[in-house]
Amino acid sequence: MTVVTRFAPSPTGFLHIGGARTALFNWLYARHNGGKFLLRIEDTDRERSTDEAIQAILDGMKWMGLDWDGDPVYQFSRRDRHVEVANQLLADGNAYYCYASKEELAEMREKAREEGRPPGYDGRWRDRDPSEVPEGVSPVVRFKSPNEGSTVIQDAVQGNVTIANAQLDDLILLRADGTPTYMLSVIVDDHDMGVTDIIRGDDHLTNAARQLQLYHALGWDAPRMAHIPLIHGPDGAKLSKRHGALGIEAYRDMGYLPEAMRNYLLRLGWSHGNDEIISTEQAIEWFNLENIGKSAARFDFDKLENLNGHYIREGDNAYLASLVRPVLAQKTGENVTDEQISLIEKAMNGLKERAKSVISLAESSLFLIAKRPLALDSKAEKLLDADAAAILSRVADALEGLSGWEKEMLEATVRECAESEGLKLGKIAQPLRAALTGTTVSPGIFDVLEVLGRDEAIGRIRDAAKSEPTT
Q: Where, by residue number, does the polypeptide cross the bilayer (predicted)?
């Protein structure tokens, strides 16, 4: 049997971090088993569903690298099929029309509260005589849930979970206006789409019991289920915006790499021995349901940042330069040329050693495309006093006399300058760094000299030294 998983977000907001992890787990399980990964947009809440949210979900999935098979399925477009199944349940005696008024339902909730019971429908129209139907009232259609016994969810993560049927009231299948509810739509779509495995948050466990009852009433085989613990904040509390419960696009905009996000989200609740760095290829090879933990995972920005730094250091230079390009354009307000990107790519080995995000990588690249004379930060400005200016002027003279511009030649020349001045290398390297980059932090100074090229490097040094070439 071909494994078929699905990710089924509601387009009422962004693709949040928990949803992204659910999508990842479903994607990995399908790819590991050579199966299919389907995407369904559950847009039945017409008031809250928006085109912007749908696009954010699609963009977030693409950015994460979670490709789905076939076209997305839009749940609202299948409402006629959902109604057809509700009518089938009515015809088979597994559903009924309920005419309870809003006032009656409010009284039921209040009575349950007073008696310390969970609120629920009391089944008053379950077996009423049709002669008692009130005139002018549009009924809802309710499922005739079993009153006795229990429903057992055979869960791949939680184990067997037993829920007494008495705890589950008769859920609504069709609203009074004839539109289907989420609970009905989900099981019909999963059945019709051939979904074999449902992997989702454990906040759906109660829904799972209700859905299993519907599957049994319809005579359909239920998918296998795996309910994964939710993600909590570092303090153990439910994940909120202060913890990192943001849209996945926010992480993209903060400079995280999709491969780092995949690795990090994979380890939020799943493990493979002591492995922390897990490539996407390894994840597909190793992923299973048995290694999903039963405890809530805790979101940790520091771990994500460190992991992102690893993927940046290991990243392809051309790929990283392409990510830096739009950030630089935004920061400078100017178009970044192919020539400038080529320069950044050439310097990337040094730039990416300290970077923890694409944003910091872009910021450390700014000096490469800055226009002369360079703006100096306060620390750099303090280094470039009169004594430093005089030394830099002599360094510029020495560099101008070189026949080539290779790193080894540049290093040897600057070291000779330091010896002739009676100084340690650092006493020249730091003012030189300030002159070349406008800051006190950069890749290796000889790398910087080489990448900038003869004319630009010497020009920046003379700007800082306020000197002219000697004749």
A: none
Q: Which two tokens stand for residue 304?
A: 């994500």
Q: Which two tokens stand for residue 461?
A: 């040094």
Considering only CA atoms, which of 63, 65, 66, 68 is closest in space to residue 252? 63
* DSSP-assigned letters across all residues of 327-384: HHHHHHSSPPPHHHHHHHHHHHHHHTTT-SSHHHHHHHHHHHHPPSSPP--HHHHHH-
Task: Reduce the DSSP state of residue 441 to 3 states and report it.
Answer: coil
Q: Which H/E stretch holds residue 74?
A: strand 73-74
Confidence grade of residue 471 (pLDDT, cut at 50, 70, 90): low
Q: Is the pLDDT of residue 13 over 90?
A: no
Which residues, in sequence order, are bridge partners of residue 227? 200
Q: What is the DSSP code (8-state) at residue 134?
A: P
Burial class (CB in 10 A: 0-12, 13-18, 19+), 116: exposed
> What is the amino acid identity at position 430?
Q
Rg (CA), the chain: 32
Tell me how far apart the alpha carbons of residues 423 and 428 are, in angstroms, rounded to a whole number. 7
62 is catalytic: no
Contacts of 227 (CB under 8 A, 6+ apart): 153, 155, 157, 158, 200, 201, 202, 204, 205, 208
Peptide bond before 373: cis, by omega within 30 degrees of 0? Answer: yes
State the Cα angle at 151 between 148 and 156, rounded to 5°: 170
User: What Cα–Cα distance (Å) separates residue 199 from each residue in 4, 158, 276, 379?
Assistant: 11, 12, 23, 53
Pairing of strands 4-7, 36-41: parallel
With beta carbons less than 8 A apart as the criterion, state whether 193 and 72 touch: no
Q: Tokens 């466990």 map to which residue?
A: 205
Which among 241, 346, 379, 382 is annotated as catalytic?
Answer: 241
**Of 132-141, 354-363, 445-454, minimum mean pLDDT range:** 132-141
**Stated pTM of the model:** 0.91
Handedness of CA 355, 358, 363, 366 (dihedral sign): positive
> What's at 394, amino acid-wise?
R
Q: Does 346 show up as a binding residue in the annotation?
A: no
Question: What does the pLDDT look like over 33-46, one tens digit per residue?
Answer: 999 999 999 998 88
Question: b vs e for 13-29, b when ≥16 Cβ sit within 10 Å of the residue's Cβ?
Answer: bbbbbbbbbbbbbbbbb
- Please report the beta strands in 89-218, taking only residues with DSSP state E, as ranges in sequence order: 95-98, 140-143, 150-155, 159-164, 172-174, 197-201
Cα 322–Cα 327–Cα 328 angle in degrees, nearest 5? 90
**DSSP SS3 for 40:** strand
Q: What is the pLDDT of residue 240?
A: 67
- Look at the alpha carbons of 393, 396, 401, 407 in this order and tell me if their dihedral is positive or negative: positive
Instruction: Give the pairing type, strands 172-174 and 140-143.
Output: antiparallel
